[in-house]
Amino acid sequence: MLKPEEKIKRHRDLNWLSFNERVLQEAQDKTTPLYERLKFLAIFSMNLDEYFRVRVSQLRQMKRVEKSIRKKLALKPNKTVKQILKEVREQQDKFGRIYREEIIPELETEGIYLVHREDYNEQQEEFARRYFKKVQKCINATTINSFGGEELFLENNGLYFMVCFKDKAEFGIVNIPTDECERFITFSSETEEYKISFLDDIVKVNVPKLFPEKEISGIYEIKLSRDAELYIDDEVDGLLAEKIYESLQQRTDGQPTRLLYDSNMPAEDQKILRKRLNLGKIDMMPGGRYHNFSDYFSFPDPTNNAALHYEKWTTVKHSVLEKAENYFEVIAKKDQSVHFPYMSFEYVERFIQQAAHDPQVKEIKISIYRIADESVVTSALLSALKNGKKLTVFIEAKARFDEKNNIDWGRKFEEEGARVIYSYPKIKVHSKILLVSREENGTLKDYAYIGTGNFNSKTSKIYCDHAIFTAHEKLTSELSRVFLVLEGELIIPRAKRLLISPFSTRKSFADMINREIENARLGKKAGIKAKMNSLEDKEIIDLLYDASEAGVNIRLLVRGFTCLVPGIENLSSNIYMTSIVDRFLEHGRIYIFENDGNEKLYFGSADWMTRNLDRRIEVIAPIYDKDIAQEFKDILEIQFQDNVKARIQDSEEKNNFVGASPGEKKIRSQYEIYKYLKEKHAP
């Protein structure tokens, strides 16, 4: 058996690029409706921006570590960044080809034309001049000395023009105000054709007005990505939420990690810009004439052609919850499960609303990772306070990019009388849990909601998640202890059934994998099936390798990156892994252990990542209701059978589609799950 240090591991940041490649495949897939392909380009772009702001910036921070320590820990940030940039350039070339050679021509067949500045006719030129007058108050134009003097600061992910002058002693910087104005402007037309322009081009037409005394030699779009991590000292004293709130400015002022620039910019001007921004050559990334393709989420469809979009689905009506007037009565009789986005998030909202207005409900406790803006959930919780309920809200103050909104809502809840608890130093609360205490027959009875997704109605329409409502006393009593830990009343929550990070999840998963290894060696039934977002933890991976070598059949579904390499002889030959990228984002976590025929099934908020096992409060729950357990197993099995949108994850990382064999039924799992749930919950 190989020693742990000899076992193959992928670098998480390099393998993440393989995931983003799968997103790009969806943009290239001609069976995907045209506007959905545009959205996949937007997702790819948005993902890549965050990747540079977070992961690449972290690699750059490693360069500050003393060389001897980096060598001892086998850290090679420079080498990794170079590999990343090479692969990103290849992906961006592919992105550009898809956009130019496929998307744009197909838009034109639908009568939708993107008109560039050089193609404006006289009427469009006049429109651009008039429109510019409306937005000019949002535009700042600055002349910069090429060789020093004035500080050149570019906001994170903001769009700018670098305006080059014949006199190289100076250059201009002009912002493109996409935060204040729509990115895409539709020209009025007397024909059936639709002409759309980038805001960028409308600004570009008018740039000479901003520098009337300069001779312009070129105008090139640029965008700077900055480090988005908040480097905050986690002292025990002081309120962490306040420290985060005060530190959010770092999101704007963070260290630059990538300058994306129009590849037509002359090398001499590239050098000027690089020097003034104090960047290295490795930070310079050539791109197209336009940046921030994430704005294509809002690209207008003037045709209103339904065929250019995914077919709209009506949500599955839950056979019990849909007609239930009192959720507490039906949940007390039997656990209930919900699956998003196939079902409506309204079932969760109604549960909280009923709890807020039910006179028998005395207390509500909820853990919120990402709070939506004004929503049914937040309104219901505020109503609960007005109705005299005791409300405890745990708010994760360190949910990346949502810190400010979370803390703002925490303050609102506090002002209305809720007990609000924020993050602990060095640990995040990632669990998606809710506990309602209701007085029944003179005693308090607890009702719980445990899910894999956030309490957010908007993301519930995009993310595939699972949840259960339960009044199972053995689960609710242990969940109550989790909240007591969050409230500081307990240090360690005793739990025999729930897996709770960072207290018992790692050991419990390790014990279950080791049990499968032992069963395989004894000739008993052994197997592991698991679905998650990412797989990174070294200890878990080594155990899975050991299980594979012991003969345990392991079937994995990992949406994002993985550090485990399947299909390697004498290491992982019994591990088969796929990844699904489709119209919805796979987000649920399900774990099944064969256990010699006495299956153990769990679901919850934690991936097999070190952070989820050791540095976050997570809840992984068993499913005791046999009907719901079968439902979860059926859903997972449908996804294992996907031969339309599943990609094989192997040592070559080619992202080959599984594909249906000749005569085999095509199974597109998200569509099949929708059909399955509709049939299961049919009236």
Protein described:
- With 683 residues, this protein is an alpha/beta fold.
- The protein is 37% helix and 21% strand.
- The protein contains 19 helices and 26 strands.
- Strands 14, 18, 19, 20, 21, 23, 24, 25 and 26 form a nine-stranded mixed sheet that branches. Strands 10, 11, 12, 13, 15, 16, 17 and 22 form an eight-stranded mixed sheet that branches. A six-stranded mixed sheet has the order 2-4-3-7-8-9, sandwiched between helices.
- A hairpin with a 6-residue loop joins β23 and β24 (600-604).
- α1 (12-28) packs antiparallel against α2 (34-62) and α15 (505-521) runs parallel beside α16 (538-549).
- The protein is globular.
- Residues 230-241 have low confidence and may be disordered.
- This is Polyphosphate kinase.
- Belongs to the polyphosphate kinase 1 (PPK1) family.
- Residues 425-459 form the PLD phosphodiesterase domain.
- Mg(2+) binds at residues 370, 400.
- It catalyses: [phosphate](n) + ATP = [phosphate](n+1) + ADP.
